[in-house]
Specification:
heterodimer, A: alpha/beta, Rossmann fold, Dimethylsulfoxide Reductase, domain 2, 5 domains, 7-stranded mixed sheet, 6-stranded mixed sheet, globular, B: mainly alpha, Formate dehydrogenase/DMSO reductase fold, 17 helices, 0% strand, disordered N terminus, disordered C terminus
Chain lengths: 1011, 476
């Protein structure tokens, strides 16, 4: 590693600009160097707010000053980068990796680096400490995209939205770019020396506390242990807001051991989830989504499917595809779990009456289903349910003989399993008590994520010396004595475990873009070895662990993205008799949960995730208080009203969102908003929930909820639509039960409710090559948004900002249409991913006066950006309304590369204002496969072209391929009796078709439809 | 106003031409204000307001080109909105002029004579206002010429299946023929002005523009033939241009747009809107320029009848649209009709439209209303608003809620939508005020022909029967 990242960039870059001006340069210089001289990027927005700076900018750089003078709206943010760039004078070029730290490309390895050809590297991205394997795409040393690694057990090729969006965070110019001490630029050497001095001054580590996020990395764990050996009185605390305590507490309660369950959905005929959104949250989510979906995939009446029962307090992606879903308050869910356990005969289960809101026949059918499929059933508890519910789920699984079949237990993959809430409380108590002299915060941001009741900021004030290592100069960095930038996972070496214990050795794609070190280097430095690089630490750690040919091991592990046979062995455990109280129900509770996009706020500065329409609400750029219609009515509030919510901990005021399917008496809201030091995108977006956060659980009793004056406009990309009335008569969503399908196996009525006749005055197209097509399976689509962000990253889709979303101009090429059917209290949910349908008789084509949208020889409806003059007639005539128009210059068009433009896919045009755009079926991927196949003198193989949305989809709901090839998977899917074309009566003959939604309700409840 | 006219009649008349007119009198009443060195205060006020609005137009256009189409309220389902409404509205107004001049000339309706000139001018200016909209509305207006068929290195031609390509030809042909027709009609009058021009500027201007007109019998013979041919050429264009614009909508498959009735109903709507605008302009003009003797009650009465007739055709169109939507049994159409009439967001627009275009014109069944300039002026303004609302209902309301419920989204115009619209009035007004100041707003040569005819041959047969209807006992 070279030392350049640690050199403050402003010394050489800013001074020339300041020189020779008669302005009050001293004050600007003082501001630049004094206040926060550690790097220019972070301080820009703060400095820019001052009048002197604006004045200086106007005189020195009139053109660049303009965006500064206007309010920094988020869309202007991208443009601002041009100005910031010129000021800082940073090199946009990525430094090539040091040659000796060889990283190993993945399967599609060219003979050498071929310009224009991407390399793929296997690594892993973790959230809450658990790894999901990824393949990072690199163009000449520049990472542009992250996809799932098909070889990794936690990914199998899928990628969650936060994973796809990583590449934007990587280049985020608001990331920390230099070491600092109290606002003054320092070097890494000084940082490490200060840390070492502080540790040595403590003697045996008394008064030293180290706070990390959840650690699963074996090498980090080793380093921590070495440090704790050297300083035995030091304490290690863990706090990870994305790692809930309940599963661990539940395992301890049930087994008395720190074990973690691993589920085998492939073996489960009946799945009962007590508030677990297991396809979307928690370790193993992507894997579980895929396994679950494979058991739910129906193509014909001969196929079988599992049955999913799910009770939850707010609509979640997993709940939305359940055969039986019931909205229940969290305490009622616990009571139901206890009741079910008692009915099944779990000994020692706490007694509970069946909650009023659960219909008796429903509960009976559930118990019957579990009992009749004993050994082939699976019960799960949600991460925010009380530990007792987890223990009950374990007990039920054991009783039914599911252990070993649908669930197995492994030793917790965490380096030191502990209850993070208690750990953080112990830390802050010690800090308040003045017992902490040295605090080292690695990665975590407790100043934002800790409950306000802990008064973390105040506690920080009582710590003599604190060291922070973080990717941005966040809320905690601002309180710390020392701060150093933390390298991004794509910039450094490390290792990390997945849900099943499998280890991935993470490898960098380039050296740290903004400087930055990782935690291994920090810990090594603390022990006196500051020259060793992360690469050496990781490699030598693994050299010690591996017997045999190490180089082969190293190559293979990096190449595959997972260490062979590293999954944890099964642990045999037995449920003890446990005693625990069920949570007490209350009329109104507040349920605080991590945001599906922003998590605990760590992704708040990522525009793709801020603008990602949330599942169900389709909200962007805000967090809200989600209320059931009945609750909203009772409280006398409606959408966009402001609601002041008081709990024992404190009060927050949130805008109201009324959500059908939300459990009455539950206010759900998401964390990650109201950041104060996230960066220019994330600062001040939404409301910080710290005042009402609790360490004891996600659910707290609400003591008061009153409407306050004012309203808050919410930017939602779709209005809410009930599939009754005209919605039903349009036959947009077609859904039926497995039973209905079996009754009419050849031509199910629910798939073809209307007859239609084909007619057209234009002749059919003739093809003699490929014919691309897509099928989307509505049965397994959970609406998780993985496809949306994957598409955004692949296709250089700009964000537009809240003001533009408010006027209906979001640019996503693929959207997930949300529909619900049935009453507003407990509707059925449907998700319909909607992108350009590539109609065979595309209505957009004949109306374009300049032939900018045309049919190509392989059946694609292609958009010629260069030719488009922007009449927008094509969009008017598109019945699917999938076209997106650049009403303003949303994308950065500057020919000078800015940081964020480095995240662009070089194979996809960046669009200018005034042109129409839309889904291309990832035509660049088709071209690349065509070239490859052409070179090899063969046809493109089935599965060789994978669209971005398809690759990211955890449930394999999207199938793409060549329709001309009758054996292709897409052709096979199209032959399904469930296949239908949306709006087929318009004779648009879309190439994207849908498989009707099939559910498998319990026969005893089938009368009522799927609940 | 300080203009004196020799033959001004205070009394209103229902004849095509007030009695007692002389050729010199016509020249005096029409040409004196044009040639007068003094410009009346009302002209300066009107021109000033128009020029200010034109300034707003230019500011809007600059902002539009530099910032992007996003300054308007358009969004993704509503990709066409106010600019297209305004385009259709202006082009509709641009119909009456050519219809009056050409169709009525061909049908030998002598009452057209006194109003055709400014109606034609109105047409051309309205087409200018209208024609700029589709260009400004483009995402990249600077490449509008790609819609034209011209040889280029791209090897690209327009895509002729698109109604927008047809549009371009329809509008440009209409604008060209209208301009030529208007100019040819102006030549003898320009020669008259040249002959009585007082200042050097006037001599140069009218001298150049009159193309050396001598007034010889041969010239007149050629002129009359050319004028008739141009009229024959223009008349089909009146029908074709708005039919083509109607096809922008009818060819699409959007519910609320794809109706086969669109072309005839748009033409009727255009005549309706055009005559409303003729009245809005004629009523103040005849007062300001003391032209009551040449633009008589007869003209207003006839225009009002056309207003009523075409208005009822338009209302029939609304009815048929709704009926066919219901009769089709297609859910999208049925819902569109329901949403148009009862929709929570835009139902008001439909009912306001019905008030404007159906209810407000009913008083025109009564002669007393038709011959009341103030009542006609007010009704015409209501009709103009109604015709704007009609395009709003067709274009915006249909787009907000189409096939998939998930893509429904509302539309709210922005300041710049209104600024460009207000500015287009400035463009129209500026041109119109320059026209009435610099050119004869009544076709004097044709008027003099009528005076001559009346004086030497008596009033024609047509006038006789009309006279008995109007209770003036034929000739006065």
């Amino acid at each position: 590693m070279n030392e350049t990242p640690n050199t403050p960039p402003h010394d050489g870059a800013v001074d020339p600009l300041l020189r020779g001006e008669r302005l009050d340069l001293e004050s600007i210089r003082a501001r630049l160097e004094g206040e926060r001289g550690d790097g220019f990027w972070r301080s820009l927005d703060e400095i820019a707010e001052t009048t002197e700076f604006v004045e200086f900018m106007r005189k020195e750089f009139p053109r660049q000053a303009a965006p500064l003078e206007s309010a920094l709206d988020r869309r202007a943010f991208l443009k601002l980068l041009g100005a910031s760039m010129a000021l800082a004078g940073l090199s946009a070029c990525a430094r090539p990796p040091a040659p000796r730290e060889t990283i190993v490309p993945y399967v599609r390895q060219p003979e050498d680096v071929v310009p224009g050809r991407a390399l793929y590297f296997a690594t892993a991205i973790s959230e809450g400490g658990y790894a999901e394997g990824v393949l990072a795409e690199s163009h000449q040393g520049r990472p542009t995209r992250v996809e799932g690694n098909p070889d990794h057990p936690a990914s199998l090729g899928a990628a969650a939205p936060t994973v796809s969006a990583t590449v934007l965070s990587l280049y985020d110019p608001d990331r920390s770019q230099g070491v600092s001490q109290g606002g003054n630029a320092r070097s890494w050497t000084q940082y490490v020396a200060a840390l070492r001095d502080a540790l040595e001054a403590s003697g045996d580590g008394a008064g030293v506390r180290i706070l990390t996020e959840n650690v699963t990395s074996p090498t980090v764990a080793d380093a921590m242990h070495r440090l704790l050996e050297a300083y035995p009185s030091a304490h290690w605390h863990q706090w990870d807001a994305l790692r809930p305590d309940a599963p661990l507490a539940g395992a301890r309660l049930a087994f008395g051991e720190d074990v973690a369950p691993v589920f085998e959905f492939a073996n489960a005929d009946v799945v009962v989830s007590f508030d677990a959104d297991f396809t979307n949250r928690g370790p193993g989510r992507l894997r579980y989504a895929r396994d679950l979906a494979r058991r739910r995939r129906v193509r014909s009446a001969d196929d079988d499917m599992n049955r999913l029962w799910l009770v939850e307090s707010h609509p979640t992606p997993t709940g939305s595809i359940a055969d039986h879903r019931l909205p229940l308050a969290p305490a009622d869910i616990a009571a139901l779990a206890a009741w079910v356990a008692a009915e099944l005969g779990v000994t020692g289960a706490p007694t509970a009456a069946l909650p009023n809101r659960v219909p008796r026949p429903w509960a009976d059918a559930l118990v019957d289903d579990l009992r009749s499929s004993a050994g082939r059933s699976l019960v799960l508890a949600g991460p925010e349910q009380a530990p007792v519910v987890h223990a009950l789920a374990h007990a039920i699984n054991e009783l039914l003989g599911n252990v070993g079949s649908t669930v197995r237990f492994i030793a917790s993959p965490e380096a030191r399993p502990e209850l993070h809430g208690a750990s953080l409380r112990a830390l802050t108590d010690a800090m308040h008590a003045g017992e902490v002299d040295v605090l080292v915060v690695v990665g975590a941001n407790p100043a934002y994520t800790a409950p306000a009741a802990l008064r973390f900021a105040e506690a920080m004030g009582r710590v003599a010396t604190s060291f922070h290592l973080g990717q941005s100069f966040d809320e905690t960095a601002a309180l710390a004595t020392w701060h150093a930038p933390h390298a991004h996972v794509l910039e450094t070496w490390g290792d990390v475990r997945a849900f099943d214990g499998s280890v991935t050795i993470t490898q960098p794609l380039f050296s740290p873009f903004y400087g930055g070190r990782n935690e291994l280097e920090l810990l090594a430095g603390a022990l006196g070895d500051e020259t060793v690089s992360a690469f050496d630490i990781v490699r030598s750690a693994w050299r010690d662990r591996v017997e045999g040919d190490f180089d082969t091991f190293w190559q293979r592990s990096l190449y595959r993205g997972v260490v062979d046979d590293s999954a944890s062995p099964e642990r045999s455990v037995a449920v003890r008799v446990f005693e625990a109280e069920l949570p007490t129900p209350s009329d109104l509770v507040l349920h605080v949960t991590p945001d599906p996009s922003l998590g605990d706020g760590r992704h708040a500065n990522n525009g793709w995730l801020q603008e990602l329409p949330q599942p169900f609400t389709k909200l962007t750029w805000d967090n809200v208080a989600v209320l059931a219609p009945a609750t909203a009515e009772a409280l006398g509030v409606t959408k966009e009203d402001l609601l002041a919510i008081t709990t024992a901990a404190g009060e927050v005021t949130l805008p109201v969102w009324v959500q059908p399917g939300q459990a009455p008496g539950v206010i759900t809201t998401t964390t990650g908003y109201g950041r104060r030091a996230a960066g220019r995108v994330g600062n001040g977006v939404g409301v910080d929930l710290a005042p009402v956060r609790s360490l004891t659980g996600a659910v707290t009793r609400v003591t008061g909820a009153t409407r306050v004056r004012g309203r808050h406009r919410l930017a939602t990309t779709q209005p809410h639509h009930n599939l009754d009335g005209t919605g039903e008569r349009r036959h947009i969503v077609r859904a039926g039960t497995l039973e209905q399908l079996r009754a009419e196996p050849d031509y199910p009525k629910f798939v073809h409710p209307v007859a239609h006749h084909e007619s057209d005055i234009f002749p059919d197209w003739e093809y003699n090559s490929y014919q691309w097509g897509m099928v989307i399976d509505m049965t397994v689509c959970t609406g998780c948004n993985a496809c949306v962000t994957a598409c955004q990253s692949e296709n250089n889709i700009p964000i537009v900002g809240k003001d533009q979303v408010l006027v209906g101009r979001e640019m996503h090429w693929i959207r997930v249409d949300a529909y619900h059917r049935g009453g507003i209290d407990d509707p059925d949910f449907f998700h319909m991913p909607m992108a350009c349908q590539h109609c065979e008789k595309a209505p957009c084509e004949p109306v374009c006066p300049v032939a900018a949208t045309v049919h190509d020889s392989e059946g694609l409806n292609v958009m010629v950006y260069n030719r488009c003059v922007g009449t927008r007639y094509c969009s008017n005539n598109c019945p699917y309304k999938v076209r997106r128009f650049n009403y303003l210059q949303y994308a950065e068009l500057s020919t000078d590369a800015t940081e964020l433009s480095l995240a662009n896919n070089p194979d996809v045009t960046v669009r200018s204002r005034g042109v129409m755009e839309k889904c291309t079926y990832c035509t660049q991927r088709i071209s690349s496969a065509r070239i490859q196949a052409g070179n090899e003198g063969r046809r493109i193989r089935d599965g060789e072209v994978v669209t971005a949305c398809q690759s990211a989809c955890p449930t394999e709901a999207i199938v793409f391929g060549d329709l001309a090839d009758e054996t292709s998977r897409v052709s096979e899917a199209k032959r399904s009796v469930l296949d239908y074309a949306l709006l087929e009566e318009l004779n648009t003959v879309p190439r994207t078709t849908y498989l009707a939604r099939v559910s498998n309700p319990h026969p005893a409840l089938a009368e009522n439809g799927s609940a | 106003m300080a203009v004196t006219t020799g033959t001004q009649l205070v009394k209103e008349t229902t004849r095509v031409l007030a009695p007692g007119q002389t050729a010199g009198g016509i020249d005096d009443s029409v040409n004196t204000p044009v040639l007068s060195g003094k410009t009346p205060m009302w002209w300066w006020i009107g021109f000033g307001i128009s020029a200010a609005l034109l300034g707003l137009y230019l500011v809007s256009v600059v902002n539009l080109v530099t910032t992007g189409t996003g300054i308007f309220g358009n969004n993704m389902p509503v990709a066409w909105a106010m600019p297209i409404i305004n385009f259709v509205w202006w082009i509709g107004i641009g119909h009456a002029g050519t219809l009056i001049s050409a169709a009525l000339l061909l049908f030998r309706q002598p009452w057209r004579t006194s109003i055709n000139r400014f109606a034609e001018a109105m047409t051309i200016f309205a087409v200018v206002c209208a024609g700029l909209y589709p260009i400004l509305h483009l995402g990249r207006p600077w490449v509008f010429y790609w819609l034209l068929p011209y040889p280029n290195t791209f090897g690209m031609f327009p895509q002729f299946r698109s109604p927008l390509a047809w549009d371009l030809f329809a509008i440009s042909a209409y604008a060209t023929v209208s301009l030529v027709f208007w100019y040819v009609g102006l030549i003898p009058d320009l020669a008259t002005l040249r002959d009585s021009a007082r200042s050097r500027f006037q001599k140069l201007l009218y001298g150049a523009l009159s193309l050396g007109w001598t007034g010889s019998a041969r010239a007149w013979g050629r002129y009359m033939r050319a004028y008739l041919l141009l009229a024959a050429l223009s008349f089909p264009l009146v029908l074709s241009v708005h039919s083509t614009i109607a096809m922008d909508f009818a060819v699409s498959q959007l519910p609320g747009w794809n109706n086969t009735i669109m072309p005839p109903y748009f033409v009727a709507g255009a005549v309706f809107a055009g005559f409303a605008m003729v009245l809005i302009l004629a009523i103040p003009l005849r007062r300001a320029f003391h032209l009551r003797s040449v633009i008589t009650m007869r003209h207003l009465d006839n225009a009002a009848k056309l207003l009523l007739g075409t208005g009822m055709i338009v209302v029939y169109g609304y009815g048929i649209e709704l009926f066919m939507a219901w009769y089709s049994g297609v859910e999208f159409e049925v819902f569109m009709a329901y949403n148009r009439v009862f929709g929570a967001d835009h139902g008001w627009a439909f009912w306001l439209l019905i008030m404007c275009n159906l209810v407000a014109i009913q008083p025109l069944w009564f002669r007393s209303v038709r011959q009341n300039p103030i009542a006609l002026f007010v009704i015409s303004i209501i009709v103009s608003i109604g015709m704007w609302l009609e395009r709003y209902v067709i274009i915006v309301v249909s787009l907000t809620k189409d096939f998939l419920l998930s893509s429904w989204f509302n539309y709210v115009p922005t300041f710049w939508d209104w600024a460009l619209f207000a500015g287009s009035f400035g463009l129209f007004g500026t041109l119109f005020f320059l026209f009435i100041r610099l050119l004869p707003s009544v076709a004097t040569s044709e008027m003099k022909e009528m005076v001559h005819h009346d004086a030497h041959h008596g009033s024609d047969y047509y006038e006789t029967i009309r006279g008995s209807y109007h209770g003036e006992g034929g000739r006065a």
